[in-house]
Specification:
Number of helices: 2
Radius of gyration: 21 Å
Shape: globular
Largest sheet: 7 strands, antiparallel
Strand order of the largest sheet: 5-4-3-2-1-7-6
Order of helices and strands: HEEEEEHEE
Number of strands: 7
Distance between the termini: 91 Å
């Protein structure tokens, strides 16, 4: 009987060691330190439309604050997420999205998306509405974006 337990424990240990890389790869993509932020390239695909841009998520205490904006700098929505309660609050929404039925869908989908990002997944699909949310960590450096107009080399008067 004791020999059987040793073999069972050895096979269980081998199985856990084999699964360890899979478990390690499922780490949270969201910020874990207070004041830290994470940037994502974001896309939201529906059967009729496609929105892409950047999303910045910042941890502030026990709440995450996020802003989603497009390539032109137009903010689509700002929201907060409380991971311990699993609650999402939409703060500002683009006027064309500011309909109760769209906000209800967005709120639920963002909640599921944030939970997916906590588990290391970059995509959430709303099967009922056929909406795909893809948030991939942005790997570009801070020097990729220059918001100052000091380096403008062009002349608009010509």
């Amino acid at each position: 009987m004791c020999r059987f337990r040793q073999i069972r424990l050895a096979s269980l240990s081998t199985l856990l060691l084999a699964l360890l890389p899979l478990l390690a790869s499922a780490q949270s993509l969201l910020p874990t330190v207070d004041g830290a932020h994470t940037r994502f390239t974001a896309s939201i695909e529906t059967p009729r439309a496609y929105v892409s841009g950047m999303c910045v998520v910042m941890l502030d205490g026990n709440m995450m604050k996020a802003s989603l904006f497009n390539e032109f700098g137009i903010t689509a929505l700002n929201f907060t997420y409380q991971p311990d309660k699993g609650k999402v609050k939409l703060i500002d929404v683009l006027p064309m999205l500011n309909k109760w039925y769209i906000k209800r869908t967005l709120k639920g989908d963002i909640k599921h998306l944030m939970k997916a990002l906590e588990q290391g997944d970059t995509t959430y699909v709303n099967q009922r509405r056929h909406i795909t949310y893809t948030f991939v960590p942005y790997t570009g450096g801070d020097d990729d974006i220059n918001l100052s107009d000091e380096d403008d080399d062009y002349d608009l008067t010509q």
